[in-house]
Amino acid sequence: MKPPTSTPDASLRELARAHGVSTEYTTDRGHRITVAADTLVSVLAACGVDASTPDAARHALAVRRTADAHRLLPACAVVRAGSPGSLPSLRLPPDAEVRVALEGGGEAALTAPLPPGAHVLHVRAGARRASAPLLSVPDRVPVPERRGWGFLIQLYSVLSRRSWGMGDLADLAELAAWSGRELAADFVQLGPLHAVEPGPLPDPSPYRPSSRRFADPMHVRVEDVPEYRYLAGEARWAVDACAARARVLNGRVLRGETLIDRESVRALKHQALRHVYEVPLTPGRRAALQDFVAREGEDLTHFATWCALADVHGRSWRSWPDGLRDPRSPRVAAARAELADEVAFHQWLAWITDEQLAAAQQAAKDVGMDIGLVHDLAVGVAPEGADAWALQHCLADRMSVGAPPDDFNPLGQDWGQPPWRPDALAAEGYRPLAGLLRAGMRHAGALRVDHVMGLFRLWWVPEGRPPAEGTYVRYDAEAMLGVLLLEAHRAKVAVIGEDLGTVERGVREQLAARGVLGTSVQRFEYLGGSEGRHGPLPPERWRTNCLATLTTHDLPTTAAWLTGEHVDLRARLGLLTRPESEEKAEAAAERDGWLAELRRLGLLPDAEGEVVALHRFLTRTPSTLLGVWLPDATGDRRPQNLPGTADVHPNWRLPVADRHGRPVPLDDLAGHPDVQALARVFTAGGPNATKTEERDVRPGPCSG
Length: 704
Fold this sequence. Notes:
By secondary structure, the chain is an alpha/beta fold.
């Protein structure tokens, strides 16, 4: 077989475009790049299209043209709710009969205004019949009714003296209750709480989960499970022994003697929770569990089955015995019956975790938080995890999500996560996407969507190839965004899109028009944009519809940025690509430019320091939401994550600490002087406070 040439021919290019595969793209520097033919062939193969030879590509193109010509309906149709549901893209015969089966029951005409929902479109034209999902989606997502502020945290890092070695959902409820009541905060934004794979965690990143559909039970506070109170005898002794070992570990973390050890925490909690699981449920509790299992349906069945099978065969499902790799096979059904108690245990774990998530959100609302919890939806999942097993029919095999080469990473990025297949997702009516969005929004006032640009296109990297040899694959953005808006409408939550980095022209504008808030980070807000930096962006030119903050979990803390310690750290780890003197000079110039802007605005000198002054700058912006990275509030100088350094830096394992690197327990935050100084920037009565009469207005459209 003759391999394809590096330059695609006309048939291959047309075939690729027909499947949403980009044949060329523009770099962040404006250069136009033609995608190699072998990349297109690999990506098409992952979409179930054979283009391995020129003849195969021409045949596949002919098949596609014929199918398009005879198709009555698209795989999935989308209309705006409340307006007549005409679909001009449909080319139906004149005698076609069209009806809509509504999600809640009943029927409607396509020409009538449709309620929001996932309906079904039916067409009959002579002897031909067709049906397709019809999504009727809101025009806009709910937005916060007034300006507000809150803490941005990674939950594992916020430990109390009652924790089991890492921050948990009881700690989250306490943080929300305290900051909402005492500091008039409106929200707490979290990193992902998604379920991770069992066993050793070579990369403990919460952004590479096993499942985005369910939260990890290692976040549970064991003592808050109602059945814990009824433990007796040997079971009580065993659970108390786990708690004692966990408290020893917790004390060592809080004394700075060791890092957060998720594996140990999870092992201790699982051991304890197995004993709690054996406590008989009361009739009311049993009914609540049954309701949860019924509500979560097949998704929970698959997740719990994967967990039970992984306990037996290991977490790499691609190496499981034949028949177990397909979640819908008879052998999996038989294995589920054999492992019924283990499956039930994992369903119970999902239930008690959901209960504590609900309790944390309720604690936030009880103290008057307008938003409460802001959960985080990771961009993808681990290729050997529960979701990749259960949803393999909707994911592209032997492909990984990443990013093309740019100034941030000249080699490009490979995130090691399989992307959605656009065709399979549409054929499913986007139900898998809706399910995980619904789960993320259930106990939240807002949802942060990581790499929100993925609703429009994703960079696919073929297995075994460098990231530079990938290409963009487009999705039906109206449908993807529509599903997001529909689920937000149902849950009555706001949406924050993480739109940092390379963003295709027009994407931010489309998101803003639909009410999705953006993300603005001080380190990236400069005059000049892609044409070069020409000084800090003045506060009045920041976007209105966005969450504004100084830094993120992937960037240096503000204290480290101000001192230049972030350059020192990268130099020690051998990460600099230029002489250290050049890096330091550039970092100093960047910092000095911002300090000069603060002086211009009269925010410096400030008796409480430069970190406080920078947060006062945020209050001068029109941004709807203002976020404070919790380590900034304690003076921490260590980054929670230094991308690309899993082997040399303790990513995702650091407790929140003070300026000297001493861990700060949650119990001590209320009396911490730096925390109090920052809180005064946002609380009522201050000169730049967010909670003033002037801010009690609905946000307008994005301004910049």
